[in-house]
Amino acid sequence: MASLTSSSQASFLSRPSSYRSSPPLPPTDHHVSLSPRDLPSFSALRASFTRSSPTLRRSRLLPISAAATDVSLVDKSVNTIRFLAIDAVEKAKSGHPGLPMGCAPMGHILFDEVMQYNPKNPYWFNRDRFILSAGHGCMLQYALLHLAGYDSVREEDLKNFRQWGSRTPGHPENFETPGVEVTTGPLGQGIANAVGLALAEKHLAARFNKPGNEIVDHYTYAILGDGCQMEGIANEACSLAGHWGLGKLIAFYDDNHISIDGDTEIAFTENVETRFQGLGWHVIWVKNGNTGYDEIRAAIKEAKAVKDKPTLIKITTTIGYGSPNKANSYSVHGSALGEKEVDATRKNLGWPYGPFHVPEDVKSHWSRHIPKGAALETEWNAKFADYEKKYPQEAAELKSIVTVNLPTGWEKSLPTYTPESPADATRNLSQQCLNALAKVLPGFLGGSADLASSNMTLLKMFGDFQKNAPEERNLRFGVREHSMGAICNGITCHSPGLIPYCATFFVFTDYMRAAIRLSALSQAGVIYVMTHDSIGLGEDGPTHQPIEHVASFRAMPNILMLRPADGTETAGAYKVAVENRKRPSILALSRQKLPHLPGTSLEGVEKGGYVISDNSTGNKPDVILMGTGSELEIAAKAGEKLREEGRAVRVVSLVSWELFDEQSEEYKESVLPSEVSARVSIEAGSTFGWEKMVGSKGKAIGVDSFGASAPADVLYKKFGLTVDAVVAAAKDLC
Length: 734
Known about the structure:
By secondary structure, this protein is of the alpha/beta class. It has 27 helices and 20 strands. Helix 2 (71-92) packs across helix 3, helix 3 packs parallel to helix 4 and helix 6 (189-208) packs parallel to helix 8.
């Protein structure tokens, strides 16, 4: 079988500075998957393969064959990638053909010559990771997965591109397509995810590798475009990557100078290379990304030789390469070429084949990745078995991280509280929980956006993760909320037992909402520790006081919005958050001190809503008072006052609406009986959505305007968040 590596390409230094057109090419006659919704077991990750294949050794310095080969087969493979993308977009009548057509050469070299992976086990732990940050060009990734032999992208999947139920959706989705590492599409998110993946590799390598036993040893590759470069999140994340010295992160910048509105000269003229050098990256420019195969190979080899910093390989390409009338134009970015232009492109590139055809010699060449991948995993399994004999404790910890098999009884490490425990802010109680969990969960790590001393998120038994201390578990994100969330998504997606948390003031989720939404969409169980959760933060005023935030996250699918009222509920919230590995959790925590309330429980938190006190009988209270967080205390005091007047009052904590909604109808009826219409809620935030709980005849007490600058106790009185207000509302209803 011929290799696709060629020594006949012109040298790197001899290339002209830019290739903006698509010259006609002469015709040539050489023209298992694990369910993404199920976390893989360690045995699955270590699955042995019966397919015969010689043992392959990985060479990190020289990953590319040095043999001279048939350039025509390279061209044919690259054009196969192009036309699989063209044909899929054309059949769907929608999509983005331009990027796959321009990036096919770099994609081919990465997947065919450089990356280490096992197509029949997309979750093999020590695989290289690939992220398409420019997710709109996803047909590039689908074509590569198809050629490499992934069961998740067969020919029928390509033909179903962008259709209902397809495994080839309009942007890469890790939960739909095995082989896709993270969900991308919103520009800049993917490169930030890649930083998280590379951070995870560096961290685990520092913790578990031993001399002669480097069991964590893989690269993270990403392709990003001009749009990603323009998004602020990309600069935030890449700044951290340079600071952390993530030497196994290699990013390919598709420098095609075209965005949706036209040439990037209208809005994007900065010197990207100089910026990345300033961020601490090694920078290489490949001036001919269209046909300069050897230039791309040489750049990758150079990048892998740089160990102490990430590398940006700027590759100048032509968007829509090969299209006679649309190449190098915005019209090829986000629309099908059209039947006439597809035919013209086939003629221009000398492609005599019909739609979705993979020539036999290309198919035969790529088929070697199946036995090669099996051999790579078999070799790694043997290496790990040897490691396990020598280092059983470390091996057990790594298994826990790879498989998310949490240590037995881990939840018993969480602190316990009684009503006699001293009052404290839930942000402080949160720190007690974080430090308790870090002692028993090997994959627990995280940090804050320059607010650790205020969010109370430092792990006291660990130091800071830094370039020269990557084994530590405190992550210093600086004032970079947006990238912080996306980096944590990448960490989570690297290994299911890595459990990252990140923190800032709750109001600043506005800076990172896109990353949080992708946590939910990607089924990435990041724990968001959000302090200063209401007007109760006081004097900092309305710029820092969240109002609509709790309601907005309750509206977001697949995320848990938890607002604990005391120490017991805070511990319960962490138990829930750790257990939910396929959905993120937001913990909204107070700045002000709160008492530990009688009746709160971990079991109640797991149900989302539960009764903390009740003097009624027969499930027929006169009135139901509901609260969350710091206002549950107000509801409890109002209940006591009403009972003194002879009322039958039930007080309910609704710490998580999402969890409560998931309970049986019988349970929900036992907490909020439908026959009781006299209901009052109190929450220091928007009342939006509370009608779901209080009903059409109930009353919701909250804050539906911006806050103000004043001490917390003054604000609560001015905004009517008082025991007297709850009592008055209850009397109006019963």
